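Checked the freezer inventory, then went back to the computational side. Two predictions to log before the end of the day. The first one is the construct we discussed on Monday; recording sequence and C-alpha cells without edits.
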Amino acid sequence: MKNTFLLISITIFSCNWGCSKNKQAIITTTTNDITTFFKGADVSWVTEMEAAGISFYDSTGVKTDLFSLLKQKGINAIRLRVWVNPTNGWCNTNDVIIKARRAQQAGMKILLDFHYSDSWADPGKQSKPATWLNLSFLNLTTTLSAYTTQVLQALQQQNITPTWVQIGNEVDNGMLWEDGRASTNMNQFAALIQAGYQSVKNFNKNIQVIVHVSNGYNNSLFRWLFDGLQANGAQWDIIGMSLYPDSTNWASYNNQCIANMNYMISRYHSSVMICEAGMPVKQPAICRQFLTDLIQKVRSIPNQQGVGVFYWEPECYNNWQGYTLGAFDNTGKPTEAMNAFLQ
C-alpha cells in the first residue's frame, strides 16, 4: 500500500544513472513470455467489504458483481494479498481462495502477493507472523518455503494456478525483520527471497516470481536493493514497483518511473511491472490522465518486458478503512479514472 515512511538514506548509495552495467554472474532471470499486456487491480478487501454490506454498481446504477464490473472496465488480472494468520481471518489462505476462484471465473489472471506477515507488510513494517517469531534463521527460511508451497497447493486443489507470485510486499529494506532487514542482513534477506523463489519454481516453473519495491521513480533505492540481492545469489523474474503520485507531480513521476524500468531491464535483464498505483479518489480526471500515460509508457517497453499496471484497491469508496485513493465514487460506481484501463 502507499508508502509513507522513509527508512533508509538512499544518498549514500547514489551514483550516476550512466554507471556501467554490473556483470550478470549470479542471476539468470527469465523474460516475460506472456503476450498479453495486463491491466490489473488489487481487490483484496472485496470479501470484507461485501460482508460489511457494501455493494458495487455500474454506471447506470445496477448492482453488479465487482469482478464482472472490473472486467467491463478492461481489467484482466487480479492481485490478492496473502497473510499467514490474520486476526479477523481476512486475507488468509481460505479467503484468498474464495477471491481467486471469482477472479478465475471472470477469466482473469491472478497475482499472489505474499506479505509473510499476519498483517500489513510495507516499507515501515515487516513483522514476522506470530508463529514464526522464535524460529532460528534456518527454520525461518524453511518455514517460508513450506508455507509458500502450502498456499499454492491449496489453490491447486481448487484448480487455480496463479500467473505471478510476489515474494514479500514493498521490501525496500527487506522483510521478516530483524532477520531479513536488508540494510543490516542483506545476505539473509537474499536467502529468504531465494527460498520463496525456489519453492515457487519447484511447484510450477511457469509461475513468474516478483520482487516488489515502493516508489518506482527512485532509481537509487532499486539499484541498491537489487545489486544486493544479485550479489547474494537471489533470483527473480520480474521487478515490481509501486507508484502513488499526486496531481502536481504525476507526469514527472511517470517519466522517472519509466526511466527506472528501462534501467532495471538493462541492468538485471528482468521484466518490470507496476504492482500498485493510486491517486486521490477526489481527482478522477487527473487520475485518468496519470493512468493513461503510465499504461501507455509501460506497454511501449520493447519486447513485452513491461508486463502490466495494477491499481491498488480501486473499489474502495466512502472512506473505507480510511483509504482515500480508490477509484469508485460515493455511490459505489467506478469513477472516470477506471476508463484508463479501457484503452
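The second is the one RB wanted added to the comparison set:
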Amino acid sequence: MKAIPKQLSPSDLNHWLQKPNQHPLLIDVREENELKIAPFPFPVIHLPLSQSSDWIENLPELMPKAKNIVVLCHAGVRSWQFGSWLINQDWGYEVWNLNGGIDAWSSSVDPSVPRY
C-alpha cells in the first residue's frame, strides 16, 4: 500500500506558521503565473510540476531533511499528487497537503490573498 500525505486544514497551517521556530518547509507546486496572481504570504520553495524535469534530480538538495513539509497548490489536487510521490520516494520526510490549497487559505484564513 502506498503512503499518502496527511491532510492539513488552512487554519491548522496558520496556527503552525505562528510558531516561528517550528515552521514547516512550504513547497508550492503551482505555475509561475499562479504565484503572480495569488502568492502565498510565507516563504515557499517554488517547484512547478510542469517543470519537474528541471528540478527533479536536485530535489533532495532543495529540501532540508530536518523539516516537515507542507505542499500546496491552487485547490489541493496537484499538491496531493506531488506529496504522495514524495512520500513514496522513502526519503523520510513528514509530508502534509494543504487541504483545499491556496483557494481555501484565501477563503478561511487570509482574504487578502486573491482567489482565481
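For RB: Residues 77-87 form the longest helix (11 residues). The radius of gyration is 13 Å. Let me know if you want it refolded.
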